[in-house]
Amino acid sequence: MISEFDLIRRCFQRPTRHTVLGIGDDGALIAPSAGQQLVVSTDLLVEGTHFFPDADPESLGWKTLAVNLSDLAAMGALPRWATLATALPAAAPDWLDAFARGFFACADHFGIDLIGGDTTRGPHGAMSFCVTIFGEVAPGAALRRNGARVDDSIWVSGMPGRAAQGLAHLRGEIKLAEPQRSDCLVALHRPQPRVELGLALRGLATSAIDVSDGLLADLGHILEQSHVSANVSIPGLPPPGLARDALLNGGDDYELVFTTPAERDAEVAALGVKLQLPLTRIGKISPPPSGSRAGSLRLCDDSGSPIASIRRGYDHFDPHGTTPSSTT
Which regions of 189-296 does DSSP assign to beta strands (E)? Predict the structure, then answer.
């Protein structure tokens, strides 16, 4: 039987690019670039909540790192290092080989060194993967959630809602035809963290967040922390139904929602062209209505009519929430 340390050497020990001391000791040594601050984020993916038991291991390896990269993108940070902790029901070298291929494909694409972690047998036969990721940003340059200002424009990257529709297809709730089916499943299983966009938004965006729990829910975090409200009207909003719900409330998109001064709208539009990435203006920051708390959001359809009963995304401890990748 293969040992824990044989698994680590076989699947996860790789040459590093910018690390003083990587895997193989009791701890890693890293040297941040001169004058840079470290940005640190952690995400945990658990079987049955974030991925199906029969998930493709290579795609899961990519996604395990990509969801953490999305947090760095939302802060305008340059990715540098990551650790990976795994809990597995049993040693499965071939499965882990495929997982590692996906993980390191993502790491190589974004220039990340894997510098350590842990591997252990998990209880109840369930798998889990926890990544802590480190990035760099100049002092004062990090994008944050609390900087949105009244009259700022609100933007979203890409096409949110595709991952949620892919999940609905896998659950048998809808039946997608090609090419939409493949497009939505790729969005679900191999999300593309918007690192290049986040870096380009430094000095341009006043606030930013990634869409992990749903477009409206995550925009709501910006509004609450910035002590503002918003008027939102999404171009081409689908009619009531699953597509609309996926767009507004679906998780696992890992697009960026951000705000910029309205007078810089043309710069944002030009940035989208440069990056070959759709950037859509979906609204405007407003002061909280009289008597209302900050964080309120007024959503309208294309005709300007208000849309009521807005359900807000996913909460792990809300039994009525919409699970982004749950099998339960």
Answer: 207-210, 229-233, 256-260, 279-286
0.70 exceeded by pTM: yes
Domains of the chain: 4-137 (3.30.1330.10), 153-300 (3.90.650.10)
Which two structure tokens, joined as six digits, stand for 152?
A: 């700022």
| Residue-by-residue DSSP string for 198-212 | HHHTTTT-SEEEE-S
Q: Is the dihedral of CA 320, 212, 244, 304 positive or negative?
A: positive
Residues of the chain short of pLDDT 50, as ranges, are 309, 316-317, 319-328
Instruction: Identify whether the C-beta of residue 258 lies closer than 8 Å to the C-beta of residue 178.
Output: no
155: left (phi over 0), alpha (psi -120 to 50) or beta: beta
Residue pointed to by tokens 């690019």: 17
The pLDDT tens digits for 276-307 are 999 999 999 999 887 667 788 999 987 788 88
What is the 3-class SS of 66-120, one letter each residue? HHHHHHHHHCCCEEEEEEEEEEECCCCHHHHHHHHHHHHHHHHHHCCEEEEEEEE
Q: Which two tokens stand for residue 134?
A: 């480190």
